[in-house]
C-alpha cells in the first residue's frame, strides 16, 4: 500500500529533522517498504498552539514522507513517531488501494509558496 506521513517537529536544528526522517525511513526499509518521496516543507506557524512535554509551541517544522509498505510497517513507523519527543504531531494516511493504475495519479507532493 502507498502511505503518506505528515509530521510536525519542533523547529530549530535542521539536523534534528534529518535524523527524524532518517529514522522513519530506516524503519520503512527494515520492514520491507520502499520510500517514494520525502519533502521538507520548512517552518510555519501552527494553526493553534500545541503543548507538548510542558512546552507551548507556536511554530512547527513540517515534513512529508510517502512510501510503499505493509500495514504492520506503517503501524511501526506511526507508533515510533508518536512516542518521539521531538515530534509535535504526525498523521499517516493510505493513498489508493495498491493497484498501479490508482497509484499513478499521485504525483509529486504539491506545496504552494506563500511568497
Automatic annotation (TrEMBL):
Localization in the cell: Mitochondrion
Coiled coil (UniProt feature): none
Domain of life: Eukaryota
GO biological process: translation
Molecular function via GO: small ribosomal subunit rRNA binding; structural constituent of ribosome
Gene Ontology cellular component annotations, sorted alphabetically: mitochondrial small ribosomal subunit
Gene3D superfamilies in UniProt: 3.30.70.60
Keywords: Mitochondrion, Ribonucleoprotein, Ribosomal protein
Pfam families: Ribosomal_S6
Functional note: Component of the mitochondrial ribosome (mitoribosome), a dedicated translation machinery responsible for the synthesis of mitochondrial genome-encoded proteins, including at least some of the essential transmembrane subunits of the mitochondrial respiratory chain. The mitoribosomes are attached to the mitochondrial inner membrane and translation products are cotranslationally integrated into the membrane.
Family to which this protein belongs: Belongs to the bacterial ribosomal protein bS6 family.
Protein name per UniProt: Small ribosomal subunit protein bS6m
Species whose genome carries this gene: Lasiosphaeris hirsuta
